[in-house]
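Probable farnesyl diphosphate synthase
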Amino acid sequence: MSSSHPRHADDGLAVRLAQTAEAIESLLDGLLSPDLLEGEIARPPRLVAAMRHGALGGGKRLRPFLTVESARLFGVGMPQALRAGAAVELLHCYSLVHDDLPAMDDDDTRRGRPTVHKAYDEGTAILAGDSLLTLAFDVMADAVTHPSGEVRAALVLALARAAGLGGMAGGQMLDLAAEGRFGSGQASVLGEAEIRQLQAMKTGALLMASVEIGALLGGAPESQLTALKRYGRALGAAFQVADDILDVEASPEQLGKATAKDQDKGKATLVAALGLDGAKRERDRLSEEAVAALAGFGAEADTLRAAARFAAERKS
């Protein structure tokens, strides 16, 4: 990795990450309370508890951190930035709850704890995921997040495009198909380009949207919005390659979930396509590409630069 960037940003990254995670945890705790919002009839306690299990008490909160830090570049107030970040995190948590289901990745542990369908049951987990997804859009569409209806519509659109048919959900479908879930039942051997497309949809789209949403919240000019989306796209790709590498190299204790599952299931990864060393080189290249995308920003973007290196260097 290049050492030409100031290390103080890297040193401050852990502090900023922890501060944002704590603030997001507090905000999510309030959003997932039993208290009714206007128009709601009741909040079933078991559903609230399952949603809280899926969303609270763990995780790096990288996505809302990216939203907050991108918004910070344009002087957005912290309450608004955190609400937008919380919406992104609610959507991310929904995806984890559903990914862990037996019909999907069939995982028993997440963040070192039983997954929602193990702690409760499959039906409750499905409804908890549905409710987290819906709540994400509820929070983003609320005037408390931004007074402009036009801005809120742009935020909702960015989140929907990242989450849906052409983004995360579509990527999950491609992943299931590659595993051989349909037709012949045989796993497919995907080419490098196909793997990159799958990963850009399943993981990268929401990471890029996390950055884009912060910029939209702050009314970023088109040129800076484009640069930040380029940053987010490269960071998302680096994050996923790093995740694939960790699945090979890390222990279940480090990750808080089962490892070596990609190879066992024949999952399409760049480790499989490029080899472990090749995947590491690509991870580092993508991290530097993300940093380079921020060339038009000054020192105020150093924390985002450090986040790009963190995405590649992380050990969990």
